[in-house]
Amino acid sequence: MAAPLKRRLTVGVLTQTYTRFFPSTGGKSSLNLLKSQTLRHFSQKQRPPPHSWPKIRYVAWVGGGVAVATTAVFLGNKVLRQNQACTVFAETRQERPYFKPSREVRVDTDTSGLKLTLYQFQTCPFCCKVRAVLDYHGFSYDVIEVNSVTKKQIKWTDYPKVPILVVETAGAQPDLVIKDSSVIISVLESYLHDRNTSLAKYLSYYPCLTENEGRKKKYDFANKYFIMFQETTNLPTTPESRNEERKWRKWADEHLVHMLSPNAYRTVKEALQAFHYFSDVGQWEQNFSFVERQVVIYVGAAVMYIMGMILKAKYNLKDDVRQSLYDACNEWLAAVGKDRPFMGGNQPNLADLAVYGVLNSIEGCYAFQDALTNTNIGPWYNRTKKAVQNHSGADPHNIKSLPSNIPKLSDKH
Ligand SMILES: N[C@@H](CCC(=O)N[C@@H](CS)C(=O)NCC(=O)O)C(=O)O
C-alpha cells in the first residue's frame, strides 16, 4: 500500500474512533486537555500551603481510581471494537440461501465481469443511493427485495440492515459481502478507478466498527466516504473537490435523510399514500403474500406516522416539516451553485448521486411533489436522473478491457 494511503487510513480510523470517544475535546487528547486545564488552574492560583498536600494526594488517588473505574465501565459498554462478525467480508455461498431475484437489471455495455446482487428495500434511501451509483456506472445486477418485517432474505448474515451487496467471485472463493451504502459506493468507485487492486482489498480499507448500545449493536465503517486511490498522481479530481464530495455525501446521510420520514408520513393520509406507493414500486404484490402486504401497508403507515412525529422532534425539524425539506433542497442547490450543472461539474459526482438517491426514495410521495413546486430542485434532479438512467458514468470505466486477474461471470462453476 502506498505510504500516503496508509497514512490516510490510519488517520481516518483514528479520527473516527477518537471523535466518538471524546466528542467534545475538539481533537485534543482528553488526557492532555485535562493536563493543560489542571496546569492552568495551578499556575493561576497560588501554590497550596504544605499541610494540604496529603489531603490533595488522597483526593487525587480516590479521584483517579473513580476515573479509571468509570473509564473501564464506559469502554466496556461503548468501546468501538473490531467485531469479527461484522468485518467478515467473505461469506460462503452455502450460508446464503437462494432467493429468486425480484428484478434483474441488465446493461448491455457492462463488461465489469462482476456478478452483483443487491439486497434492498426498494424505497430505502440508502438502497436508492446504491442503485443510483450502480445504474450511473452501468452495472448489471440482481435485486432481492427484503421483507421489511421478517427480513428472512438477510437472515444468513449478522448484519441487520440493507443495503447489502454480494459480489460473487470465481470458483470456490467465498463471495464478497459489502455492507453499508457508503462503503458499497466507495468500494465500487475505488475499484472502477483502478481495477488492478481487488475488490476484497478495497473492502479491507473500510473496517467495520460496532458500538454496543444496551442490547442493540450500532454499526459504522471507518473511511466510508473516502475513495481509495492507489497512487497520488494523475488523480481525476482535486483535493478540494474530493473534500466537497465527501462533505455532501455525509450531509445526504446525516441531514437530508432525516427530512424524509417526517415529510413522507406527515399525516395519516400521506403515510398511507406513501406505503401504497412503496408497495407499487417495490412490487410487493409479486414478492409478498396479500396478508403480508396489508400488514406492512397499514401497520407500517400507522407506525411510521408516529415515527415521523418522533423524528421531527429528534432532528429539530420546523413546525411545518415541509419547510425543513425545502431548506435542505435550497442548501444543496446553493452548494452546487449556478455555474455548474452538477456538483461534480459536467457529470454528477458521488455527492450528486447521494442527494439524488435520497430524494428519489420519496419521488412518488406528496412531499417530493411539494418540493418540486416550492423549490428549484427540479432541473438539477431531472438532469441527475437522466444521467443515472442513461448510465452516463459507464463510459469510459466499463468499456476498459479487464486485467486478467479479474474473475469473469463465465468463470463461475
Ligand atoms: N448506514 C447504513 C444505514 C442503512 C439503514 O439504516 N437501512 C435501513 C433501511 S432504510 C434498515 O435496514 N433498517 C432495518 C433495521 O435497522 O433493522 C447505510 O448507509 O447503508
Could you walk me through the main structural features you see in this protein, from its secondary elements to its overall organization?
GO terms for molecular function: prostaglandin-E synthase activity. Keywords: Fatty acid biosynthesis, Fatty acid metabolism, Isomerase, Lipid biosynthesis, Lipid metabolism, Membrane, Prostaglandin biosynthesis, Prostaglandin metabolism, Transmembrane, Transmembrane helix. Its EC number is 5.3.99.3. It catalyses: prostaglandin H2 = prostaglandin E2; prostaglandin H2 = (12S)-hydroxy-(5Z,8E,10E)-heptadecatrienoate + malonaldehyde. 50% of the residues lie in helices and 10% in strands. It is α+β, with helices and mostly antiparallel strands. The protein folds into three domains: 43 residues, no CATH class; 166 residues, 3-Layer(aba) Sandwich (Glutaredoxin), CATH 3.40.30.10; 137 residues, Up-down Bundle (Glutathione S-transferase Yfyf (Class Pi), Chain A, domain 2), CATH 1.20.1050. The strands form two sheets. Strands 2-7-6-4-5-3 form a six-stranded mixed β-sheet. Strand 4, helix 5 and strand 5 form a beta-alpha-beta unit. The longest helix is centred in the N-terminal third of the chain and has 26 residues. The site of glutathione has 10 residues, from helix 6.
